[in-house]
Each structure stands twice: as structure tokens, then as C-alpha cells.
User: What shape does this take?
Amino acid sequence: MKRLFLAVLFLALSNVSAQIHEIGVFVGGANYIGDVGKTNYIDPHELTFGLLYKWNKSTRHSYRISFLQGRLTANDFDSEVTGRSRRGYNFTNTVREITAGLEFNFFDFDLHQMDRQFTPYVFTGLTYTNYDELYVINGRTKVDINSGTFAIPMIVGFKGNIATNWILGFEVGARYTFTDNLDGSNPKNSNLQSLQFGNLTSNDWYVFSGLTLTYTFGNKPCFCAD
Assistant: This one.
């Protein structure tokens, strides 16, 4: 996945004329929403980090790709749900994702203006996530195979320019995955399906919350109709 991200980034950077670009980092926390542990929607407690690139097509929208990695953990003993706290399952899984999509600014955000600018924004697109297929046996969570799934990212954030060529943002992004086994509750392996538990009709989610810091470069664009 890292090689794929770098290949896409190289292609994007090969044409730096007529647009302005951003490249930077994401640092924050991760939490999972599923069949094990707490049911909090936003509860960042595990480190997440990665790289991102934006191609600003106008003052209102940009195309964005990113590669992020984070660890997901949960423990039933932390849950206020009686059934979970009595069950006592826990898991750890590492997710690595590559995401591409469209970011939309609520206000005009002209990167060539020298005065301070701020805007809320939203982002969505398509994510591919690499993770471990888990299963739980005799109360212990184990790894079956490494696997992958697609997910739909839904991100809201707020950003502003803090210095010449530098933009700082904060965002919260939920990923609705097409798997129900980030936590070991619903193994794909047919030999392990007797070990299923939890809600088997609801897929897992995970959330990345954190800061973005990007550096802008490229020729000054004409944000106007061709």
C-alpha cells in the first residue's frame, strides 16, 4: 500500500503547473466501533500517523490522497454494557489505509492570500484498508490471515493558514468498512464461523481524529473557468 501511495503521489507531482499543491502529515488517535469494548463514537486513544497530498482545483475544492496507519484496540472490561463487561473479550488490530477523494471547503480558501483564512471542510471518497482477520477461541483473540476491505470515509474538519505556505487543520474521520471482523467477531474462514458473536448484521467502523500540517507549493493557479 505504501508503494501504491508513493506511485500515485509521484504522478500527481509530475504536473505542478497551473495548480497549487499541498503535502504534509497527519498525527492523531484512533478508535473502533463494533462488537467489543466501549460504544463511544469518538474516543481516540491509539496513535495514528501518515502522509497526505492535496491538489487544489479551486478555492472551494481539492482532490486528496492519503496513506494512514493506526492501531485499533478494545476491551470488554471498559464497556458499560453489562453483557460485554461480563464476557471480557479484547483485541488489537493494525489498520493501514489508502484513501482518495474530494475535499470541499465551506468558505473560499485562497492559498495565495497573505491574510489569515479559516474554513470548515468535509471530505469523502473511497478507502482501501489492510487489516488482520481475527478470531476468538477460549477467550483469547488470535490472527487467522491478513486481509483487506473497502471503506467509505466521512471526514469533517477545520483548517487555517498559520504561516506562509503552511496550513494547520483538525479533523475527525469515520470509516464505514465492508467487514464485520476488525474485532474477531465474524471470521471469514468457514472453519471458524462457529466462533461468531455479537451483531452479525452490522459492519465495523473505525475513527481517526487528529491534526494535519501541510506545506503548499506549485505555480499560482487561476481559480476561474477555462
Q: What stands out?
A: The two ends are 35 Å apart (CA to CA). The chain has two helices and eight strands. The chain has a mean pLDDT of 91.
